[in-house]
From TrEMBL:
<keyword id="KW-0456">Lyase</keyword>
<comment type="similarity">
    <text>Belongs to the enoyl-CoA hydratase/isomerase family.</text>
</comment>
<dbReference type="InterPro" id="IPR018376">
    <property type="entry name" value="Enoyl-CoA_hyd/isom_CS"/>
</dbReference>
<dbReference type="GO" id="GO:0006635">
    <property type="term" value="P:fatty acid beta-oxidation"/>
</dbReference>
<dbReference type="InterPro" id="IPR029045">
    <property type="entry name" value="ClpP/crotonase-like_dom_sf"/>
</dbReference>
<dbReference type="Pfam" id="PF00378">
    <property type="entry name" value="ECH_1"/>
</dbReference>
<dbReference type="InterPro" id="IPR001753">
    <property type="entry name" value="Enoyl-CoA_hydra/iso"/>
</dbReference>
<protein>
    <submittedName>
        <fullName>Enoyl-CoA hydratase</fullName>
        <ecNumber>4.2.1.17</ecNumber>
    </submittedName>
</protein>
<dbReference type="GO" id="GO:0004300">
    <property type="term" value="F:enoyl-CoA hydratase activity"/>
</dbReference>
<dbReference type="InterPro" id="IPR014748">
    <property type="entry name" value="Enoyl-CoA_hydra_C"/>
</dbReference>
Length: 250
């Protein structure tokens, strides 16, 4: 793969690797990321980060400009979003620098976002005379609310990692040098839980963004019953009662 570096293991790592272009996402990178996620299906969690001084400055403007409307519609970035949507394990975005446009949309498609203190986040598409196209108006608004989202989308200005934290847009802000260590620590902490329960929990939390409250509550209850009857569920409760560490099967 030319545009991403993949590290396999219990915690998989995908590093966007077009540092001289601030990891702008071109079609090659879209397919490399799809392949990378497919290669990491056996990992317990995946961290996605950027090589160099950016997480990603968004879609590759040069390439995007040259694509016809038919090409964008037929061959666009959907394979990436579809793959991420279907990925059952938690994905942590580790933002190491500029995270803009499609780069922020990529981060928001992940399950947790850890930002280095120097990271800058935003949806600058408006400065190109376009608007976000992969969640930058929808996921962002559901996360930070209408009024802050409007300012970000309509001014295109980048905000600091701490501003993003105060809006609830990132899970945690860490010193630059601790970014990968902290992301790894979080991934490892999650990897020690029941794999099946983690998948069920991820699925249920994500449903909250897709549904009205009652549908979400019904979905959560379904997943709760499933975990309650699962082998790991029985083992976890038995271990608690027997005052010992659980021995997870998944
Ligand atoms: N596309 C292509 N090349 C880029 C991009 C980009 N998005 N961003 C930076 N680069 C290139 C620059 O052209 C430059 O290349 P070169 O050295 O060959 O001229 C190199 O990366 C370094 O960039 P800068 O010199 O500009 O670096 P600065 O540190 O001075 O500035 C900025 C950093 C402010 C981030 C600046 O690079 C910038 O404004 N970039 C564009 C950001 C942007 O507008 N992003 C939105 C793009 S549109 C989009 O993402 C729509 C998403 C639709 C959904 C699909 C998602 C996958």
């Amino acid at each position: 793969m030319n545009t991403v570096i993949v590290e396999k293991g219990e915690i998989g790592v995908i590093k966007l690797n077009r540092p001289d272009k601030l990891n702008a996402i071109n079609m090659e990178m879209v397919y490399d990321m799809v392949n990378a996620f497919n290669e990491l299906k056996a990992s317990k969690a995946v961290i996605i980060t950027g090589n160099g001084k950016a997480f990603s400055a968004g879609a590759d403007v040069k390439e995007m400009m040259e694509m016809s409307i038919e090409q964008v519609t037929r061959e666009g970035h959907m394979p990436l979003w579809d793959t991420m949507r279907g990925f059952r394990k938690p994905i942590i975005a580790a933002l190491n620098g500029v995270t803009a446009g499609g780069g922020l949309e990529l981060a928001m498609a992940c399950d947790m976002i850890i930002a280095a203190e120097s990271a800058r986040l935003g949806q600058p598409e408006i400065n190109l005379g376009i608007i976000p196209g992969a969640g930058g108006t929808q996921r962002l608004t559901r996360t930070v609310g209408k009024y802050r989202s409007m300012e970000i989308v309509l001014t295109g200005k980048l905000i600091t990692a701490w501003e993003a934290y105060r809006m609830g847009l990132v899970t945690k802000v860490v010193p630059d040098e601790a970014l990968m260590q902290e992301s790894m620590r979080l991934a490892r902490e999650i990897s020690q839980r029941s794999g099946f329960a983690v998948e069920m929990g991820k699925e249920a939390v994500n449903k909250a963004l897709d549904t009205l409250l009652q549908q979400g509550l019904d979905f959560e209850r379904r997943n709760f019953y499933v975990t309650l009857l699962s082998e790991d569920g029985k083992e976890g409760m038995r271990a608690f009662i027997e005052k010992r560490k659980p021995n997870w099967k998944t």
